[in-house]
Amino acid sequence: MKFDIVTIFPRMVQAAVAEGVISRGVVSGALDIQVHDLREHTTDRHRSVDDVPYGGGPGMVMKPEPIVRAVEAIMARRGAPGAVILLSPQGRRFTQREAERLSRLSHIVLICGRYEGMDERVPELIGGEELSLGDFVVSGGELPAMVIVDAVSRLVPGVVGDERSVAEDSFARGLLDYPHYTRPAEFGGRVVPDVLLSGHHAEVRRWRRKSALARTLDRRPDLLEQAALDDEDRGLLAEILKERGRPDTVG
Ligand code: 9WO
């Protein structure tokens, strides 16, 4: 899978893709990630990427020309991408489902904005889709872009070594993750649940599923309404509610 990332801080993005799972995906050849310095696509002597906002007001706005030129250069070298993504709080919400959709494409371009924002004609001209990670503001699109590259990359076959960890991930079945423990069996006066030390694989699986359901019920009941629950899950959920003394209510 090919990613092209356009930024005024290429070293920041290079550093992030040079570590961990993403770096291994690049080395193995499953990922081809190129980072582009937006200033390389300017034509003026000062290599300007920003200008004052029409209508006045504080701060600067990203100029459209260098961004459109950068996308044209990428298309000329690497072909038309399956998606061009702009990161902004005004975008559609990025979710695991969206990560799955993007992981089925073979080429994605991500544009990282800075300053107060980007000229509104950019997404129109390059056919870009705006994505948001949530209701908060950061100083630029780089960190959100890296989150998207990471979430999508781990779904690309061959990037995460053990495919089982991707299949079992939180959200793979629409629930929060179960609690994890490692040695020692007692730490700070807190013990690991007995069942995890028992060696009874069926019991461990059941405990993990029940814990994931209980956590999701407590922390994200909205997810439970969307989750693909089977008969066993419904049985476990009934147990949880019964243990809590509210046999017929959810949430
Ligand atoms: C993209 C864009 C698309 C259409 C119209 C205007 C647009 N502006 C941008 C953009 O990249 N804005 C910048 C990124 C500049 C200001 C700070 N930026 C930003 C992105 N702050 N917070 C985010 C963000 C992104 C995704 N999820 C949460 C926050």
For the terminal residues, how far apart are their CA atoms? 41 Å
Rg on CA atoms, Å: 23 Å
Please bin the fraction of helical residues.
Answer: 40-55%
Number of strands: 9
Number of helices: 11
Strand order of the largest sheet: 2-1-6-5-7
Biggest sheet character: 5 strands, parallel
Question: What is the chain-wise order of helices and strands?
Answer: EHHEEEHEHEHEHHEEHHHH
Would you give an account of this structure?
- It contains 11 helices and 9 strands.
- It has 251 residues and is an alpha/beta fold.
- The strands form 3 sheets. Strands 2-1-6-5-7 form a 5-stranded parallel β-sheet, sandwiched between helices. Strands 3-4 form a two-stranded antiparallel sheet. Strands 8-9 form a two-stranded antiparallel sheet.
- The radius of gyration is 23 Å and the shape is elongated.
- The chain starts with a strand and ends in an 8-residue tail after the last helix.
- The structure holds ligand 9WO.
- Ligand 9WO binds at residues 86-89, 113-115, 117-118, 120, 123, 130, 132-134, 136-141, 144.
Write the topology of this structure.
Elements: E1 2-7, H1 10-17, H2 20-28, E2 32-37, E3 50-51, E4 61-62, H3 64-78, E5 83-93, H4 96-103, E6 107-111, H5 121-126, E7 128-132, H6 142-153, H7 163-167, E8 186-187, E9 190-191, H8 194-197, H9 201-219, H10 221-226, H11 231-243
Parallel strand pairs: 1-2, 1-6, 5-6, 5-7
Antiparallel strand pairs: 3-4, 8-9
Helix pairs in contact: 4-6, 9-11
This protein binds ligand 9WO.
